Prior knowledge:
mainly alpha, rod-shaped, membrane, transmembrane, transmembrane helix
Amino acid sequence: MSVFEVAERHGPWRLAGFACAVLLFLALGLLRWPFLLVARILRGLQVGLDQRITASFPGPVSPYPIT
């Protein structure tokens, strides 16, 4: 079934509505990328900071550590 047959059978407004739905789906997918990039950068910074803080402590503070 071609695009012209779909337009003839269901009307051009249905075809335009479908095209808008597909474009909206793609646009929302593209809008997601900057947020994912920021989240990955923040995660990397948090892991690095956590490793630095953990490495700065020499070990247990008391001679009898709580287990």
